[in-house]
Amino acid sequence: MDDLPTRFISSFVVEFISDFMHFCVEKYGFSTEEISIICVVATESTREIRHDGYLLKTYGTEVQAIPDEFRFPVSVQFVCRRLGMRRETTRRKLEDLAKRGFLNKVKGGYALPAQTDAADYTLELRGFLVSKISNLRTYIEKIPA
Prior knowledge:
Elements: H1 6-28, H2 32-45, H3 47-51, H4 53-59, H5 76-83, H6 87-99, E1 104-106, E2 109-111, H7 123-141
Helix pairs in contact: 1-7, 2-6, 5-6
């Protein structure tokens, strides 16, 4: 590990997280807790797509949104354990995010809504994230061998 560019990559990841947080606060008016909750729900409710080659190929691009039947519920308990938040605070924040249309309340918990048409609030966010990954590739290419 001594010869890996760990400090360089760590600095980039921290910049990436900071820029991501700033983008979400400025664009959507989210609090840091809301960003964390949406990230946990988005990651967990769409986990299957990252582990299934067919689903990844079918729904992993901009062509077609992930259908609701492939979005699994994330429980209040899971979110509060994952983030170390109090259960009632977590439940209130999840309810508020659902009322505002950022999450769907479904049987068994919450899921990220299908991102389509006017309901696609993550289109700009996906573009932002892809550009950051492109930047990382550029930075890695500049690392001296």
